[in-house]
Design a protein that fits this description.
Order of helices and strands of chain A: HHHHHHHHHHH
Strand content of chain B: 15-25%
Number of helices of chain B: 14
Number of strands of chain A: 0
Low-confidence stretches of chain B: none
Order of helices and strands of chain B: EEEHEEHEHHHHHEHEHEEHHHEHEEH
Number of strands of chain B: 13
Structural class of chain A: mainly alpha
Shape of chain B: globular
Distance between the termini of chain B: 32 Å
Radius of gyration of chain A: 22 Å
Largest interface: A-B, 24 and 27 residues
Mean pLDDT of chain A: 88
Oligomer: heterodimer
Helix content of chain B: 25-40%
């Protein structure tokens, strides 16, 4: 077992332990409070908030993946090639628009709560996945795509049997990037009353309670690191399995 | 039989293939030779419609290739390319079984065919079937590439510089394998190469292309003896006598009699025999076939064969 894995398992154990029984860790955060402020977040269960946070990120990323991969497939087909520049700029706009601005604009239409946060995360997550899928689908070895055509595969067969499997590791890298960005960005959803870990941070900021801010931040940080590592590991396994080890290292 | 009629391909202002007509008989190995940019690859790719012709048509066994969907046409024609183009995420067995799978063959039949082809190319099925392409050497990958092209028992095999990426030793082995397989299945082969030596060695007919035009289409003997243009002569190069000798086997010149020294095999080319005569300073060499002495071959006869045919 490598040192890296031991550290990751340790972080995971600490995270789970803290979420299940936050009070046992009170002594760590005690020095950060003043004037007898509560040490551990007390306006709701940290575990519930974490699960809800993860759920929002999962839904937003799943939607973004579906749309971005679908779009990238369409614009790399012969009939969709002319939409490539347009779709690129659309995805870019989604990325340059600050999530806070999206929230502000979405609230009047969708009301307070989870919905505007989902919209912001969805828009924000599109670009990395879209760009990576494009790279994956257009950067395939030309001899392989040529052979697939020469063997008599139809367009759909080439996509499903050759292009997507070979592009999968690169697509997954985009999903990983998007997930980690969303994990962090989801915290600001709490400004419009979405139930995420942002609540803990905001509560801390409002009452000048550094312990709360740190708790919220640490949980989000630990989640991001663990999910990033997990997805990276899946990517490496896929790259090896698709016989592209040399290509990935190059 | 492949009949190419007035085939033309124009990209924008450039005519890449210019009204080429030629007929490739069943069981022939036609080598298309030319420099890069001569249109040789485009010409070949129009046969299985990887490139759609601007004008003209291709008939296969009398049927216009445009009468069937392109993907169905391609499943009937074997296709092997330089750098093999194996699918890196599929095992060797799955790669070879690609076209049979597309054609909907039964699993057991595909497995049987894959093992048969692996054995044919001297790759032990048990050992290689489940390997990934990146675990093979260059020569093995190339063999799997050709095996994949032959999987659905096509009558026609198109090869685009299939041996270009191989080192000389493996290349000559791969060339001999191709000739043996072509003879055995009587496959019609169209092979694109820039190497005249390879074309002469493999081709039963050679098509020389330059600037999109077909300069000459003839047997290797005819091309060497009477090149149609200076360009063809230039492609053949200065060592025409030796190329001429490389076309025939020792067996064709054997005469009764004895000679001293190491014998030469009846299956060797006249070029090898002549080289051996010169190297060892002998007037004649003993010839063996299947380990038995069958006569001798003389340097004078060899020299006569190397002369320009009258």
């Amino acid at each position: 077992m490598s040192i890296g894995l031991v550290i990751r398992l340790l972080v995971l154990a600490l995270l789970v332990g803290f979420l299940v029984s936050p009070e046992s860790f009170a002594f760590v955060f005690e020095p950060l409070t003043k004037n007898n402020q509560p040490v551990i977040y007390n306006q709701g269960s940290l575990l519930d908030l974490t699960l809800n946070h993860l759920l929002i990120v999962a839904i937003a990323t799943a939607l973004a993946t579906t749309v971005a991969v679908g779009l990238a497939i369409l614009v790399t087909r012969p009939f969709g090639a002319e939409f490539l520049p347009l779709s690129r700029s659309l995805a870019n706009v989604g990325q340059t628009f600050p999530p806070v601005a999206v929230l502000a604009l979405a609230v009047p239409m969708l009301g307070f709560g989870t919905a505007p946060t989902l919209v912001a995360l969805f828009l924000y997550g599109l670009l990395p996945i879209f760009e990576n899928t494009l790279t994956g689908l257009t950067g395939l070895p030309p001899t392989v795509t040529e052979a697939a055509r020469g063997m008599g595969m139809t367009g759909g067969q080439r996509l499903v049997r050759v292009e997507l499997p070979l592009a999968l590791p690169v697509i997954l890298a985009g999903v990983r990037l998007s997930t980690v960005i969303s994990l962090a960005t989801a915290t600001i959803g709490s400004t419009v009353a979405a139930r995420t870990l942002g609540e803990v941070i905001i509560a801390g900021l409002l009452s000048s309670n550094t312990a709360f801010v740190l708790q919220g931040g640490l949980i989000v940080g630990a989640l991001a690191v663990l999910i990033y590592d997990g997805l990276s590991a899946i990517e490496r396994a896929l790259t090896r399995r698709t016989g592209q080890g040399a290509r990935a290292n190059a | 039989m492949i009949e190419i009629q007035e085939l033309t391909k124009v990209y924008g202002e450039t005519t890449v293939v210019d009204r080429v007509s030629l007929t490739i008989g069943a069981g022939e190995l036609c080598a298309i030779v030319g420099t890069s940019g001569s249109g040789k690859t485009t010409l070949m790719r129009m046969v299985n419609r990887l490139v759609e012709p601007t004008a003209g048509k291709v008939l296969i066994d009398g049927q216009d290739t445009r009468d069937v969907p392109a993907y169905e046409l391609r499943r009937r024609i074997g296709y092997a390319i330089q750098g093999h183009g194996l699918f890196p995420h599929r095992t060797v067995g799955q790669n070879i079984g690609t076209v049979p799978h597309l054609l909907g063959w039964e699993k057991s039949r595909i497995t049987k065919r894959v093992d048969e082809l692996l054995s044919l190319f001297q790759l032990d099925p048990a050992q290689f079937r489940d390997r990934m392409p990146n675990e093979l050497s260059g020569g093995q990958q190339q063999r799997v590439g050709v095996a994949r092209a032959l999987a659905a028992e096509p009558n026609i095999l198109l090869m685009d510089e299939p041996f270009g990426a191989l080192d000389p030793v493996i290349r000559s082995k791969a060339q001999d394998d191709l000739l043996a397989i072509q003879k055995r299945f009587n496959t019609t082969v169209v092979l694109v190469t820039h190497d005249m030596e390879e074309a002469i060695h493999l081709g039963s007919r050679i098509a020389v292309m330059d600037g999109g035009k077909l300069l000459q289409y003839a047997t290797p003997q005819e091309i060497i003896a009477n090149p149609a243009t200076d360009f063809v002569a230039e492609l053949i190069g200065g060592d025409r006598p030796f190329r001429m000798l490389s076309l025939a086997k020792v067996l064709s010149l054997v005469e009764p009699g004895e000679a001293a020294g190491d014998p030469i095999s009846a299956g060797a080319s006249l070029r090898e025999a002549y080289a051996e005569c010169l190297w060892s300073g002998r007037e004649a060499l003993p010839v063996i076939e299947d380990g038995k002495l069958i006569g001798r071959i003389s340097r004078n006869d060899l020299a006569r064969c190397a002369a320009r045919p009258s």
